[in-house]
Design brief:
Number of domains of chain A: 2
Order of helices and strands of chain A: EHEHHEHEHEEEHEEH
Shape of chain A: elongated
Strand content of chain B: 15-25%
Helix content of chain B: 40-55%
Largest sheet of chain A: 4 strands, parallel
Number of domains of chain B: 1
Strand order of the largest sheet of chain B: 1-4-2-3
Number of helices of chain B: 4
CATH class of the largest domain in chain A: Alpha Beta
Helix content of chain A: 25-40%
Strand order of the largest sheet of chain A: 3-2-4-5
Number of strands of chain B: 4
Oligomer: heterodimer
Radius of gyration of chain A: 22 Å
Largest interface: A-B, 16 and 18 residues
Shape of chain B: globular
Strand content of chain A: 15-25%
CATH superfamily of the largest domain in chain A: Response regulator
CATH topology of the largest domain in chain A: Rossmann fold
Number of strands of chain A: 9
């Protein structure tokens, strides 16, 4: 899932301090799971903004709501009748949600309330770790279910490199060497022969090198 | 024990400080509380294992928020007491009331023109 962290409060305050009617919009999708941008976080941010405006002696209307997902028009449309009331909107969705809202409400000032970080897993509450870089061509079948693109700091396809030291990566001793993990896993699976044939260069045209990407599924389109 | 402590505190009972949410604390200040203290069990003594430790983290987060929005994190505090420490509880309430009196009314009450007398809120 997409992982994000809340933006520092002072950054959001700096953006909205000159407005008098602000709507905070949470997203009930990915950012709710990592506790960065759901209804709860929308309530906390709205309360903090109300306290800020009130102590500054400024009359302001700060409201909060949350949508099922901000990456779908149908849910964003639920805001259409109330959008005109507000001077600015703080979206707590990931970068996709913020942009889609800005596209849909073209004349409204939309601020991001979170910093979108990566595609990752919840190792435990409050500990999120990157697992996928959405390169567009999954090679997990060949690498024992461990992605060298996401887990190797150099994104090597034929690792490990000389910087692998006792199972750790040379860039940081807290980061496991992705290729050490792949080796151990392939050993467990009895597939170490995978290391005998070098992997061809990866086709990066499905990744960001091809510019912004689009998926067209004719079988699903109406 | 018939311990005396200032009458301008409102006690809100919860089953465990683990129940105290960030929004409970923020709303207390939005409603105009001059100060709030959260009183939980001694660390390591929580009947629900770690409720008081969760509360401690939430209190620290709200203190940060209060500092950033100009209300002042010093208006919020957490204490850890056992149920047998009534004397210390009364003493803390006296101390915190005195501190809040020194700080003056919350900027929220001043701004909304409701600053008539201090209210300190206590959550146990």
């Amino acid at each position: 899932m997409i992982k994000a962290v809340p933006k520092p409060l002072e950054e959001v305050l700096g953006q909205v301090k000159d407005f008098t009617k602000v709507l905070i919009v949470g997203c009930d999708g990915c950012v709710t799971v990592c506790e960065a941008g759901g209804m709860k976080e929308a309530k906390v941010l709205a309360s903090a903004l109300r306290l800020y405006f009130t102590q500054a002696g400024k009359q302001a209307q700060i409201d909060e709501t949350s949508l099922t997902r901000q990456c779908e028009k149908e849910y964003l449309a639920q805001l259409s009748d109330k959008m005109d009331i507000y001077d600015a909107v703080v979206s707590l969705a990931c970068g996709c949600g913020v942009q889609y809202m800005a596209e849909m409400y073209n004349n409204k000032i939309i601020y991001p309330g979170v910093d979108t970080c990566f595609l990752g897993v919840n190792e435990e509450r409050g500990l999120y770790v990157e697992r996928c870089q959405a390169c567009g061509r999954c090679i997990l079948a060949e690498t024992g279910g461990i992605c060298p693109i996401a887990r190797c700091s150099k994104r090597m396809l034929n690792g490990p490199c000389g910087g692998s030291d006792a199972g750790k990566c040379e860039i940081n001793k807290d980061i496991p060497c992705g290729w050490e993990l792949i080796y151990e896993r392939l050993k467990t699976l009895g597939q170490l022969d995978r290391f005998e044939k070098p992997v061809d260069p990866k086709d990066w045209s499905t990744s960001r090198d091809g510019g912004p990407r689009t998926i067209v599924r004719e079988d699903l389109r109406i | 024990m018939r311990l005396q402590y200032p009458p301008n505190v409102r006690i809100i009972e919860v089953p465990c400080t683990g129940k105290v949410d960030i929004m409970h604390l923020l709303m207390a200040f939005e409603y105009g509380a001059d100060g709030v203290i959260v009183v939980g069990c001694l660390e390591g003594d929580c009947h629900y294992s770690a409720g008081n430790l969760y509360a401690k983290k939430r209190v620290n987060r709200v203190k940060e928020i209060l500092d950033k929005v100009g209300v002042g994190g010093e208006r919020l505090a957490m204490y850890n007491l056992s149920s047998g420490m009534g004397g210390r509880f009364a003493e803390i309430v006296r101390e915190i009331t005195e501190k809040i009196m020194e700080l003056g009314p919350s900027p929220i009450r001043v701004a909304t023109g409701k600053a008539t007398g201090p209210i300190a809120e206590v959550t146990t």
